What we know:
Blueprint: H1 29-43, E1 50-51, H2 55-59, H3 67-87, H4 89-112, E2 115-116, H5 129-140, H6 150-163, H7 170-189, H8 195-225
Parallel strand pairs: 1-2
Helix pairs in contact: 1-4, 3-4, 3-6, 3-7, 4-6, 4-8, 6-7, 6-8
Amino acid sequence: MKKPVVDYRTFRLNKLSDPEFSHLKLLGGWIVYFLFYFLTENLIPAERCTPMHCIFDDMIPFREEFVVFYVGWYVLIVVSLLYFMLYNVEGFRNLCIYIMITQAVAMTMYILFPTRQDLRPEVFPRENFFTWVVSILYAFDTSTGVCPSLHVAYSLGIGSVFLKEKSVGVFWKALIVFLVIMISLSTAFIKQHSVVDIFAALALGVLAEALVYGKYWGKKLRAIRT
């Protein structure tokens, strides 16, 4: 088992500004996100929101099994943050900044251009454990504030940082890529997002990638030219 690069057993709140632990301040971005999430979810009425829809949405059936990947997204975020917090502080910083960029842009869009989706089935075609989980998701997560999809945007950030991590083997990188793809597809198959939201998240991911890893890709391009 790998040894953590930082001994968090010695961490105390009064050490938060110490160079060894200062990267943990980036977790404060989640507080801001949850505040804005509450405001956008509860203070912007659905009738003010523009419906997101495209022809592909009508071609994609409702498949409740994909809720496994949709819910797995929450686990993936926690595991990814913990991994890089323990084993690669620079990767942790990059992932946090990537996520905060997508949060900031998405929340701005949710406020300036409120969106919703009207894709959820009125009645589930089947009743089983998976549809029960979907019903719970529908209950606590409204159908507003959907474009771009943060499920997709965060997943792209996680995939990006893992693919650049030299200490992670090919199998695990392939697994991460698989999960990123399936999580992105799950947003459409359980009717939490339109395909429009997915493509908007891809564009947002390109922006975040350029801002976080611009120097990294610059070096790659220069190496290819030489």
